[in-house]
Design a protein that fits this description.
Number of domains: 1
Strand content: under 5%
Distance between the termini: 58 Å
Number of strands: 0
Helix content: over 70%
Mean pLDDT: 81
Radius of gyration: 17 Å
Order of helices and strands: HHHHHH
Number of helices: 6
Structural class: mainly alpha
Shape: globular
Largest sheet: none
Low-confidence stretches: none
Length: about 130
């Protein structure tokens, strides 16, 4: 009987860890981006560092160096390149990173998310 309880507890623990890892993806992306931006002042380097945290694990591990550079080219020029973190959160939830390879789609999504970010003050504009 005790082994059933241990089995259930193990499953619950695995599910909780999995959920928490998904929830934390956005703060990790933002923290990495903000830290690197303060370190070197380059949006490109900050995005590269934030993306690099994720590409080692599914579903982001399908991204090749060319895909990462394309994402950086699309998002770095935006006023709020951190919107890529929102996209990463949704990709993390869906488990499918294939849309990150479509530059045209990413450009459209980035522009829309930037408009939303500006209108809803998602980001601190003080500094």
């Amino acid at each position: 009987m005790w082994w059933i309880i241990l089995g259930v507890l193990a499953v619950v623990a695995i599910v909780v860890v999995w959920i928490l890892s998904r929830v934390r993806s956005l703060p990790v992306f933002y923290a990495t981006y903000d830290y690197m931006l303060k370190e070197n002042g380059s949006k490109e380097s900050a995005l590269r560092a934030a993306i690099s945290v994720f590409v080692k694990r599914p579903p982001f591990n399908i991204l090749m160096d060319d895909d990462i550079e394309a994402l950086i080219r699309v998002f770095a020029p935006l006023p709020y390149p951190q919107v890529l973190g929102r996209i990463f959160l949704e990709v993390d939830k869906s488990g499918d990173a294939s849309e990150l390879k479509d530059q045209t789609r990413m450009r459209k999504i980035a522009e829309e998310l930037t408009r939303l970010a500006i209108s809803q003050s998602w980001f601190d504009q003080s500094g």
